Amino acid sequence: MPNSTGNTLVALVVGAIVGAGVGILFAPDEGKKTRRKIKKSFDDASENLKHRFEDLNADIKHKAEKFKGTLEENVESLLSRSSYKAEEVIDVLEKKLEQLKKANAKFQK
């Protein structure tokens, strides 16, 4: 059912667009006026599309900058946490090395 409703809606929209185009072409205006109307409609539609692309482009750039900042912050946080852990690991290894040296010294005597 939902697919049928979607198809019907698309058919209505396409029919309205075709009907408007045919209405303009067969209107009792002079050819010059009709061409002007068609050109104006085309210009308006292309201007609208241009603005939509500009908005979309700005939105994508904004989201990319936000993601970049977030990514940089995450990497920085990870590095700072890792360096803290690295220091902790080094301390533990140094203590173990000292214990091994003491144990080895007892066996050397």
Automatic annotation (TrEMBL):
Alphabetical UniProt keywords: Coiled coil, Membrane, Transmembrane, Transmembrane helix
Pfam families registered for this protein in UniProt: YtxH (PF12732)
Source species, domain of life: Bacteria
UniProt cross-references to InterPro entries, sorted A to Z: Desiccation-related_membrane, YtxH
SUPFAM superfamilies: Apolipoprotein A-I
Coiled-coil regions listed: 46-106
Record's keyword annotation contains Nucleus: no
KW Transmembrane (keyword) present: yes
Transmembrane segments: 6-27
Protein name according to UniProt: Gas vesicle protein
Taxonomic source organism: Capnocytophaga catalasegens
